[in-house]
Amino acid sequence: MAKYAPMMEGSPRQVLTELQEAKVLRAILGERQLDEVLVDFWMNHFNVYAQKGPVRFLLGEHERAIRRHAWGRFEDLLLATAKSPAMLFYLDNWLSASPSASAGGRGPSAFRRGRFGFGRPGRDAQGRSAEAQGRRRGLNENYARELMELHTLGVDGGYTQKDVTEVARAFTGWTITGLRQGRPEFAFEERLHDDGDRVVLGRRIEGGGEREGRSIIHMLATHASTARFITFKLARRFVADEPPPALVDRAASVFQATDGSIREVVRTIVTSPEFLAPEVRSTKIKSPLEFVVSAVRASGAKVADGRDLARRIADMGMPLYLQAPPTGYKDTAEAWVSTSGLVARLNFALDLAAGRVGGVRVDAERLASGGPGLTDALAARLLPSGLSESTRRTIEGEAAGLETARVAGLILGSPEFQRR
Known about the structure:
Elements: H1 12-29, H2 33-45, H3 55-69, H4 74-82, H5 85-90, H6 130-133, H7 142-151, H8 161-170, E1 174-177, E2 185-188, E3 198-200, E4 203-205, H9 210-221, H10 224-238, H11 245-257, H12 262-270, H13 288-299, E5 302-303, H14 307-315, H15 339-354, E6 360-361, H16 364-367, H17 374-382, H18 389-399, H19 404-412
Antiparallel strand pairs: 1-2, 3-4, 5-6
Helix pairs in contact: 1-3, 1-13, 3-4, 4-9, 7-8, 10-11, 10-12, 11-12, 13-15, 15-19, 17-19
Protein backbone atom coordinates (compact mmCIF):
# COMPACT_ATOMS: atom_id res chain seq x y z
CA MET A 1 0.00 0.00 0.00
CA ALA A 2 2.77 2.45 0.93
CA LYS A 3 4.26 2.63 -2.54
CA TYR A 4 0.96 3.92 -3.91
CA ALA A 5 0.29 6.32 -1.04
CA PRO A 6 0.14 9.36 -3.40
CA MET A 7 -2.93 7.80 -5.00
CA MET A 8 -4.87 7.93 -1.78
CA GLU A 9 -5.06 11.69 -1.39
CA GLY A 10 -5.01 14.89 -3.39
CA SER A 11 -6.71 16.03 -6.57
CA PRO A 12 -5.38 14.91 -9.97
CA ARG A 13 -3.92 18.38 -10.59
CA GLN A 14 -2.26 18.46 -7.17
CA VAL A 15 -0.72 15.02 -7.72
CA LEU A 16 0.77 16.06 -11.06
CA THR A 17 2.05 19.36 -9.64
CA GLU A 18 3.78 17.55 -6.79
CA LEU A 19 5.32 15.02 -9.16
CA GLN A 20 6.70 17.80 -11.36
CA GLU A 21 8.08 19.69 -8.38
CA ALA A 22 9.67 16.55 -6.97
CA LYS A 23 11.42 15.82 -10.28
CA VAL A 24 12.88 19.32 -10.44
CA LEU A 25 13.99 19.35 -6.80
CA ARG A 26 15.59 15.93 -7.08
CA ALA A 27 17.56 17.05 -10.11
CA ILE A 28 18.70 20.25 -8.37
CA LEU A 29 19.45 18.89 -4.92
CA GLY A 30 20.60 15.37 -5.74
CA GLU A 31 24.28 14.62 -5.26
CA ARG A 32 24.33 11.76 -7.81
CA GLN A 33 23.82 13.74 -10.97
CA LEU A 34 24.60 10.91 -13.38
CA ASP A 35 21.80 8.90 -11.78
CA GLU A 36 19.35 11.71 -12.53
CA VAL A 37 20.58 12.03 -16.11
CA LEU A 38 20.15 8.31 -16.73
CA VAL A 39 16.74 8.09 -15.07
CA ASP A 40 15.54 11.03 -17.15
CA PHE A 41 16.87 9.27 -20.26
CA TRP A 42 14.94 6.07 -19.46
CA MET A 43 11.79 7.98 -18.49
CA ASN A 44 11.75 9.40 -22.01
CA HIS A 45 12.62 6.05 -23.56
CA PHE A 46 9.74 4.41 -21.67
CA ASN A 47 7.49 7.46 -21.79
CA VAL A 48 3.96 7.49 -20.38
CA TYR A 49 1.50 10.39 -20.52
CA ALA A 50 0.25 11.71 -17.17
CA GLN A 51 -3.02 13.10 -18.56
CA LYS A 52 -4.33 9.74 -19.73
CA GLY A 53 -6.83 8.37 -17.24
CA PRO A 54 -5.20 7.48 -13.91
CA VAL A 55 -1.62 7.45 -15.25
CA ARG A 56 -0.59 10.39 -13.07
CA PHE A 57 -1.48 8.28 -10.03
CA LEU A 58 0.68 5.45 -11.39
CA LEU A 59 3.68 7.56 -12.39
CA GLY A 60 5.47 7.41 -9.04
CA GLU A 61 5.83 3.65 -9.08
CA HIS A 62 6.69 3.67 -12.80
CA GLU A 63 9.61 6.00 -12.10
CA ARG A 64 10.69 4.01 -9.06
CA ALA A 65 10.77 0.85 -11.18
CA ILE A 66 13.00 2.63 -13.68
CA ARG A 67 15.27 3.88 -10.91
CA ARG A 68 15.69 0.35 -9.54
CA HIS A 69 16.94 -0.94 -12.90
CA ALA A 70 18.50 2.16 -14.50
CA TRP A 71 22.05 0.80 -14.08
CA GLY A 72 21.29 -2.91 -14.32
CA ARG A 73 20.50 -5.29 -17.15
CA PHE A 74 18.40 -3.85 -19.93
CA GLU A 75 16.24 -6.99 -19.96
CA ASP A 76 15.28 -6.46 -16.31
CA LEU A 77 14.42 -2.82 -17.02
CA LEU A 78 12.36 -3.81 -20.05
CA LEU A 79 10.41 -6.39 -18.06
CA ALA A 80 9.78 -3.93 -15.23
CA THR A 81 8.29 -1.39 -17.64
CA ALA A 82 6.24 -4.07 -19.40
CA LYS A 83 4.62 -4.89 -16.04
CA SER A 84 4.27 -1.25 -14.97
CA PRO A 85 0.58 -0.35 -14.42
CA ALA A 86 1.32 3.08 -15.89
CA MET A 87 2.63 1.53 -19.12
CA LEU A 88 -0.12 -1.09 -19.23
CA PHE A 89 -2.76 1.65 -19.00
CA TYR A 90 -1.03 4.21 -21.22
CA LEU A 91 -0.63 1.82 -24.17
CA ASP A 92 -3.95 0.03 -23.49
CA ASN A 93 -2.43 -3.39 -22.97
CA TRP A 94 -4.48 -3.84 -19.81
CA LEU A 95 -7.49 -4.04 -22.16
CA SER A 96 -5.90 -6.46 -24.62
CA ALA A 97 -7.58 -9.84 -24.62
CA SER A 98 -8.13 -12.82 -26.85
CA PRO A 99 -11.22 -12.24 -29.02
CA SER A 100 -12.60 -15.47 -27.59
CA ALA A 101 -12.09 -14.46 -23.93
CA SER A 102 -15.14 -14.87 -21.71
CA ALA A 103 -16.83 -11.83 -20.21
CA GLY A 104 -16.75 -12.98 -16.58
CA GLY A 105 -13.93 -13.37 -14.11
CA ARG A 106 -11.57 -10.99 -12.38
CA GLY A 107 -9.95 -9.43 -15.43
CA PRO A 108 -10.42 -5.90 -16.74
CA SER A 109 -13.95 -6.55 -17.97
CA ALA A 110 -15.01 -7.00 -14.33
CA PHE A 111 -13.71 -3.59 -13.16
CA ARG A 112 -16.21 -0.91 -12.18
CA ARG A 113 -15.85 2.81 -11.83
CA GLY A 114 -13.69 3.50 -8.77
CA ARG A 115 -12.55 6.41 -6.68
CA PHE A 116 -10.22 7.80 -9.33
CA GLY A 117 -12.91 8.37 -11.95
CA PHE A 118 -12.01 5.65 -14.42
CA GLY A 119 -14.25 2.74 -15.05
CA ARG A 120 -14.37 -0.69 -16.54
CA PRO A 121 -12.55 -1.27 -19.82
CA GLY A 122 -14.26 0.16 -22.80
CA ARG A 123 -15.41 3.26 -20.88
CA ASP A 124 -13.45 6.35 -20.01
CA ALA A 125 -13.86 8.75 -17.09
CA GLN A 126 -16.86 10.39 -18.81
CA GLY A 127 -18.52 7.02 -19.33
CA ARG A 128 -18.02 6.93 -23.09
CA SER A 129 -17.97 3.49 -24.59
CA ALA A 130 -14.96 1.96 -26.29
CA GLU A 131 -16.67 2.44 -29.63
CA ALA A 132 -17.30 6.15 -28.89
CA GLN A 133 -13.61 6.58 -28.10
CA GLY A 134 -12.52 4.77 -31.24
CA ARG A 135 -11.06 1.88 -29.25
CA ARG A 136 -11.77 -1.72 -30.15
CA ARG A 137 -12.19 -4.39 -27.53
CA GLY A 138 -10.17 -7.56 -27.91
CA LEU A 139 -6.63 -7.67 -29.24
CA ASN A 140 -4.78 -4.34 -28.86
CA GLU A 141 -1.47 -3.87 -30.69
CA ASN A 142 -0.38 -0.54 -29.19
CA TYR A 143 2.11 -1.92 -26.69
CA ALA A 144 3.44 -4.61 -29.04
CA ARG A 145 4.24 -2.01 -31.70
CA GLU A 146 5.94 0.43 -29.33
CA LEU A 147 7.78 -2.42 -27.60
CA MET A 148 9.55 -3.22 -30.87
CA GLU A 149 9.72 0.19 -32.52
CA LEU A 150 10.57 2.42 -29.55
CA HIS A 151 11.70 0.23 -26.66
CA THR A 152 13.92 -2.38 -28.35
CA LEU A 153 14.58 -2.99 -32.05
CA GLY A 154 13.98 0.48 -33.47
CA VAL A 155 11.92 1.40 -36.49
CA ASP A 156 14.43 -0.31 -38.80
CA GLY A 157 14.80 -3.37 -36.61
CA GLY A 158 13.50 -5.85 -39.17
CA TYR A 159 10.07 -6.69 -37.75
CA THR A 160 6.85 -6.96 -39.75
CA GLN A 161 3.19 -6.24 -39.08
CA LYS A 162 2.68 -9.96 -38.54
CA ASP A 163 5.35 -9.83 -35.82
CA VAL A 164 3.45 -6.98 -34.16
CA THR A 165 0.24 -9.02 -34.17
CA GLU A 166 1.94 -12.11 -32.79
CA VAL A 167 3.63 -10.13 -30.01
CA ALA A 168 0.29 -8.52 -29.16
CA ARG A 169 -1.26 -12.00 -28.88
CA ALA A 170 1.55 -13.07 -26.55
CA PHE A 171 0.86 -10.12 -24.22
CA THR A 172 -2.90 -10.62 -23.95
CA GLY A 173 -3.79 -11.10 -20.31
CA TRP A 174 -1.02 -8.80 -19.05
CA THR A 175 -3.32 -6.48 -17.13
CA ILE A 176 -3.86 -4.57 -13.86
CA THR A 177 -5.67 -5.48 -10.65
CA GLY A 178 -6.52 -3.31 -7.68
CA LEU A 179 -7.35 -0.11 -9.56
CA ARG A 180 -10.66 0.30 -7.79
CA GLN A 181 -9.07 -0.20 -4.39
CA GLY A 182 -6.22 2.22 -5.06
CA ARG A 183 -3.63 -0.60 -5.04
CA PRO A 184 -2.89 -1.18 -8.72
CA GLU A 185 -0.58 -4.06 -9.52
CA PHE A 186 0.40 -6.11 -12.53
CA ALA A 187 -1.51 -9.35 -12.94
CA PHE A 188 -1.62 -12.05 -15.58
CA GLU A 189 -5.15 -13.22 -16.38
CA GLU A 190 -5.11 -16.62 -18.06
CA ARG A 191 -8.76 -16.20 -19.04
CA LEU A 192 -7.88 -13.22 -21.26
CA HIS A 193 -4.82 -14.80 -22.86
CA ASP A 194 -4.70 -15.85 -26.51
CA ASP A 195 -2.71 -19.02 -25.96
CA GLY A 196 -0.91 -20.98 -28.64
CA ASP A 197 2.38 -21.28 -30.46
CA ARG A 198 3.47 -18.33 -32.57
CA VAL A 199 6.43 -17.16 -34.66
CA VAL A 200 8.11 -13.81 -33.96
CA LEU A 201 11.13 -12.58 -35.95
CA GLY A 202 11.42 -16.04 -37.42
CA ARG A 203 11.62 -17.73 -34.01
CA ARG A 204 9.03 -20.10 -32.64
CA ILE A 205 7.50 -19.03 -29.32
CA GLU A 206 5.75 -21.91 -27.58
CA GLY A 207 2.40 -21.29 -25.91
CA GLY A 208 2.43 -21.10 -22.16
CA GLY A 209 0.59 -18.17 -20.66
CA GLU A 210 2.69 -15.41 -19.11
CA ARG A 211 5.86 -17.25 -20.12
CA GLU A 212 5.21 -16.26 -23.76
CA GLY A 213 5.55 -12.56 -22.97
CA ARG A 214 8.67 -13.16 -20.90
CA SER A 215 10.21 -15.17 -23.74
CA ILE A 216 9.58 -12.31 -26.15
CA ILE A 217 11.03 -9.80 -23.68
CA HIS A 218 14.20 -11.91 -23.51
CA MET A 219 14.39 -12.31 -27.29
CA LEU A 220 13.97 -8.59 -27.93
CA ALA A 221 16.29 -7.48 -25.13
CA THR A 222 19.14 -9.65 -26.44
CA HIS A 223 18.62 -8.96 -30.14
CA ALA A 224 21.49 -7.36 -32.08
CA SER A 225 19.19 -4.61 -33.39
CA THR A 226 18.25 -3.71 -29.83
CA ALA A 227 21.91 -3.52 -28.81
CA ARG A 228 22.58 -1.04 -31.58
CA PHE A 229 19.38 0.98 -31.11
CA ILE A 230 19.87 1.41 -27.36
CA THR A 231 23.57 2.21 -27.56
CA PHE A 232 22.97 4.71 -30.37
CA LYS A 233 20.46 6.55 -28.18
CA LEU A 234 22.79 6.52 -25.17
CA ALA A 235 25.70 7.77 -27.28
CA ARG A 236 23.46 10.48 -28.69
CA ARG A 237 22.50 11.50 -25.15
CA PHE A 238 26.05 11.65 -23.82
CA VAL A 239 28.18 12.60 -26.85
CA ALA A 240 26.53 14.20 -29.89
CA ASP A 241 23.29 14.40 -31.84
CA GLU A 242 25.04 12.30 -34.49
CA PRO A 243 27.29 10.04 -32.40
CA PRO A 244 30.45 8.62 -34.00
CA PRO A 245 29.60 5.24 -35.63
CA ALA A 246 32.75 3.62 -34.24
CA LEU A 247 31.67 4.47 -30.70
CA VAL A 248 28.18 3.04 -31.29
CA ASP A 249 29.73 -0.15 -32.69
CA ARG A 250 31.95 -0.59 -29.61
CA ALA A 251 29.13 0.15 -27.20
CA ALA A 252 26.81 -2.29 -29.00
CA SER A 253 29.47 -4.99 -28.74
CA VAL A 254 29.74 -4.33 -24.99
CA PHE A 255 25.94 -4.49 -24.69
CA GLN A 256 25.89 -7.95 -26.23
CA ALA A 257 29.00 -9.22 -24.42
CA THR A 258 27.71 -8.19 -20.97
CA ASP A 259 24.12 -9.45 -21.25
CA GLY A 260 22.83 -5.92 -21.76
CA SER A 261 24.64 -4.30 -18.81
CA ILE A 262 23.64 -0.64 -18.86
CA ARG A 263 26.45 0.22 -16.46
CA GLU A 264 29.11 -1.21 -18.76
CA VAL A 265 27.64 0.44 -21.85
CA VAL A 266 27.60 3.86 -20.16
CA ARG A 267 31.13 3.26 -18.86
CA THR A 268 32.26 2.49 -22.42
CA ILE A 269 30.72 5.71 -23.72
CA VAL A 270 31.90 8.15 -21.05
CA THR A 271 35.46 6.77 -20.96
CA SER A 272 35.83 6.73 -24.74
CA PRO A 273 38.12 9.12 -26.64
CA GLU A 274 35.06 10.33 -28.53
CA PHE A 275 33.41 11.55 -25.31
CA LEU A 276 36.06 14.27 -24.85
CA ALA A 277 36.93 14.84 -28.50
CA PRO A 278 37.17 18.55 -29.41
CA GLU A 279 34.78 18.17 -32.33
CA VAL A 280 31.91 17.10 -30.06
CA ARG A 281 32.72 19.20 -27.01
CA SER A 282 29.83 21.49 -26.06
CA THR A 283 27.79 20.57 -29.13
CA LYS A 284 24.75 19.24 -27.24
CA ILE A 285 21.95 21.70 -26.47
CA LYS A 286 20.43 21.44 -23.01
CA SER A 287 16.79 20.51 -22.77
CA PRO A 288 14.62 23.00 -20.82
CA LEU A 289 14.85 20.75 -17.75
CA GLU A 290 18.65 20.60 -17.99
CA PHE A 291 18.89 24.35 -18.60
CA VAL A 292 16.80 25.31 -15.58
CA VAL A 293 18.47 22.80 -13.27
CA SER A 294 21.98 23.79 -14.37
CA ALA A 295 21.22 27.51 -13.97
CA VAL A 296 19.89 27.00 -10.45
CA ARG A 297 22.84 24.82 -9.47
CA ALA A 298 25.44 27.11 -11.05
CA SER A 299 24.01 30.18 -9.33
CA GLY A 300 24.00 28.50 -5.93
CA ALA A 301 20.33 29.40 -5.53
CA LYS A 302 18.40 28.47 -2.41
CA VAL A 303 15.23 26.65 -3.42
CA ALA A 304 12.29 26.55 -1.04
CA ASP A 305 9.61 25.72 -3.60
CA GLY A 306 10.00 24.13 -7.04
CA ARG A 307 6.59 24.79 -8.51
CA ASP A 308 7.53 27.97 -10.37
CA LEU A 309 10.63 26.25 -11.74
CA ALA A 310 8.46 23.44 -13.13
CA ARG A 311 6.14 26.02 -14.67
CA ARG A 312 9.07 27.82 -16.32
CA ILE A 313 10.26 24.51 -17.80
CA ALA A 314 6.77 24.04 -19.26
CA ASP A 315 6.90 27.58 -20.69
CA MET A 316 10.04 26.52 -22.57
CA GLY A 317 8.13 23.68 -24.23
CA MET A 318 8.78 20.78 -21.87
CA PRO A 319 5.90 20.28 -19.42
CA LEU A 320 7.13 17.42 -17.24
CA TYR A 321 5.35 14.07 -17.63
CA LEU A 322 3.08 15.61 -20.29
CA GLN A 323 4.57 14.43 -23.56
CA ALA A 324 1.64 12.62 -25.15
CA PRO A 325 3.44 10.59 -27.87
CA PRO A 326 5.26 7.45 -26.66
CA THR A 327 8.50 8.76 -28.16
CA GLY A 328 9.08 11.04 -25.16
CA TYR A 329 10.91 14.34 -25.46
CA LYS A 330 13.60 14.59 -28.12
CA ASP A 331 17.29 14.76 -27.31
CA THR A 332 18.51 16.72 -30.31
CA ALA A 333 19.09 20.41 -30.95
CA GLU A 334 16.28 20.99 -33.42
CA ALA A 335 13.72 20.19 -30.74
CA TRP A 336 14.84 23.08 -28.52
CA VAL A 337 16.47 25.72 -30.72
CA SER A 338 13.77 28.20 -31.68
CA THR A 339 13.29 31.92 -31.28
CA SER A 340 10.50 31.58 -28.72
CA GLY A 341 12.38 28.92 -26.80
CA LEU A 342 15.57 30.94 -26.56
CA VAL A 343 13.65 34.07 -25.52
CA ALA A 344 11.97 32.06 -22.75
CA ARG A 345 15.38 30.85 -21.58
CA LEU A 346 16.86 34.34 -21.50
CA ASN A 347 13.84 35.68 -19.61
CA PHE A 348 14.17 32.89 -17.07
CA ALA A 349 17.90 33.55 -16.64
CA LEU A 350 17.29 37.24 -16.01
CA ASP A 351 14.41 36.52 -13.61
CA LEU A 352 16.43 33.91 -11.73
CA ALA A 353 19.40 36.23 -11.16
CA ALA A 354 17.09 39.09 -10.17
CA GLY A 355 15.13 37.02 -7.66
CA ARG A 356 11.91 37.00 -9.66
CA VAL A 357 11.39 33.21 -9.69
CA GLY A 358 8.99 32.09 -7.00
CA GLY A 359 10.46 30.01 -4.21
CA VAL A 360 14.06 30.59 -5.37
CA ARG A 361 16.65 33.04 -4.01
CA VAL A 362 19.98 33.97 -5.62
CA ASP A 363 22.67 36.16 -4.05
CA ALA A 364 24.13 37.75 -7.19
CA GLU A 365 26.53 39.98 -5.27
CA ARG A 366 28.17 36.97 -3.66
CA LEU A 367 28.64 35.39 -7.10
CA ALA A 368 30.61 38.44 -8.25
CA SER A 369 32.98 38.56 -5.29
CA GLY A 370 36.68 37.82 -5.65
CA GLY A 371 37.13 38.58 -9.35
CA PRO A 372 39.07 41.25 -11.24
CA GLY A 373 36.01 42.52 -13.09
CA LEU A 374 32.28 42.03 -12.93
CA THR A 375 31.89 39.99 -16.12
CA ASP A 376 35.00 37.88 -15.50
CA ALA A 377 34.08 37.24 -11.89
CA LEU A 378 30.55 36.13 -12.72
CA ALA A 379 31.64 34.05 -15.70
CA ALA A 380 34.21 32.23 -13.56
CA ARG A 381 31.46 31.17 -11.14
CA LEU A 382 28.62 30.54 -13.56
CA LEU A 383 30.38 29.25 -16.67
CA PRO A 384 33.88 27.84 -15.96
CA SER A 385 34.18 26.64 -19.58
CA GLY A 386 34.26 30.30 -20.55
CA LEU A 387 32.43 32.77 -22.75
CA SER A 388 33.23 33.24 -26.41
CA GLU A 389 34.86 36.51 -27.34
CA SER A 390 31.77 37.72 -29.16
CA THR A 391 29.52 36.98 -26.16
CA ARG A 392 32.04 38.59 -23.79
CA ARG A 393 32.15 41.77 -25.88
CA THR A 394 28.36 41.92 -26.04
CA ILE A 395 27.96 41.53 -22.27
CA GLU A 396 30.81 43.89 -21.41
CA GLY A 397 29.35 46.43 -23.76
CA GLU A 398 26.19 46.39 -21.68
CA ALA A 399 27.76 45.72 -18.29
CA ALA A 400 28.73 49.33 -17.60
CA GLY A 401 26.12 50.71 -15.27
CA LEU A 402 24.18 47.46 -15.08
CA GLU A 403 23.30 45.77 -11.82
CA THR A 404 25.22 42.62 -10.94
CA ALA A 405 22.06 40.53 -11.23
CA ARG A 406 21.49 41.73 -14.79
CA VAL A 407 24.99 40.72 -15.87
CA ALA A 408 24.61 37.34 -14.15
CA GLY A 409 21.34 36.81 -16.00
CA LEU A 410 22.95 37.64 -19.34
CA ILE A 411 25.68 35.06 -18.69
CA LEU A 412 23.14 32.40 -17.70
CA GLY A 413 21.17 33.20 -20.84
CA SER A 414 24.24 33.23 -23.10
CA PRO A 415 24.64 30.80 -26.03
CA GLU A 416 27.53 29.10 -24.22
CA PHE A 417 25.37 28.30 -21.18
CA GLN A 418 22.77 26.63 -23.41
CA ARG A 419 25.22 23.82 -24.19
CA ARG A 420 26.06 20.80 -22.09
